[in-house]
């Protein structure tokens, strides 16, 4: 683990955090749930909350990005959010990635951290990527998230002051407590 990096677990609303960047568990088109297809429901999950709280500027910037592949990450401004930036990542749909789900989920975390590092972002907050509409088992996802972040911090000491995992309910909080 990095010399100064503090891993924290909080419960609450990721859109209320005043950090350098929050991570949005996005749909592949990056256009928010009102535009998403297949598994997303209107105003659903982290994606809906982030788009709603950030305001229309976020949608306009996302339109210019041309979408995002599973496991990749793209950065935008935070607009009306307290966070300066939003790092969008598309998690894997559990059972639909030909056995590559764990690697793709780990890639989400690594690519978000790389993006934050490249943009000199010292604090970042993650939701439980892929555990909502995309059906990833919560315990398995938490283990991958914690392990991946700890490895990244160990290889990149002093990159971050704070990395936060946000649990949106008591069940997720208890699961993440085992790994953080």
Helix content: 25-40%
What name does the CATH topology carry?
Answer: Leucine Aminopeptidase, subunit E, domain 1
Mean pLDDT: 91
Please trace the helix and strand order, writing H or E for each element.
Answer: EEHHEEHEHEH
Strand content: 15-25%
β-strand number: 6
Q: Biggest sheet, open or closed, and with what strands and sense?
A: 6 strands, mixed
- Tertiary shape: globular
Given as residue ranges, the uncertain stretches (5+ residues, pLDDT < 50) are: 35-43
Question: Can you describe this structure?
Answer:
There is one protein chain. Helices cover 34% and strands 17% of the residues. α3 crosses α4 (138-155). Residues 35-43 have low confidence and may be disordered. It has a single domain, classed as Leucine Aminopeptidase, subunit E, domain 1. α4 links the parallel β5 (123-126) and β6 (162-167). The protein contains 5 helices and 6 strands. The termini are close together.
Core attributes:
180 residues, alpha/beta, Leucine Aminopeptidase, subunit E, domain 1, six-stranded mixed beta sheet, 5 helices, 17% strand
Task: Offer a concise description of the structure.
This protein is of the alpha/beta class and 180 residues long.
List the helices and strands and how they pair.
Layout (H helix, E strand, L loop, with lengths): L5 E6 L9 E5 L19 H10 L1 H8 L9 E5 L7 E5 L11 H18 L4 E4 L11 H18 L6 E6 L2 H8 L3
Parallel strand pairs: 1-6, 2-4, 2-5, 5-6
Antiparallel strand pairs: 3-4
Helix pairs in contact: 3-4
